[in-house]
Write a structure and sequence with these properties.
Layout: H1 6-15, H2 20-26, H3 33-39, H4 47-57
Helix pairs in contact: 2-3
Length: 77
Amino acid sequence: MRKVDLAKIRKLREDKKLTQRYMAGKLGYKSSIGYHYIETGRCQIRAEQLAVIATELGVGLEDLYVSNTTKMVDVEM
């Protein structure tokens, strides 16, 4: 299972100068606490929420996942 990069989401949001309140509104929350819980990992992000977050941050869905830095290595025996 792939993991969403919450730190990257926060950095992208801050770089675009978007508030948690703004993002919460886009996701249908009445206050910023719901979005805060998503960004801090206290609750899981649903697929449709992740799509909205990606759109608001101006990135693709793939950009919001932790990068796989594992390299394939041939082992000689």
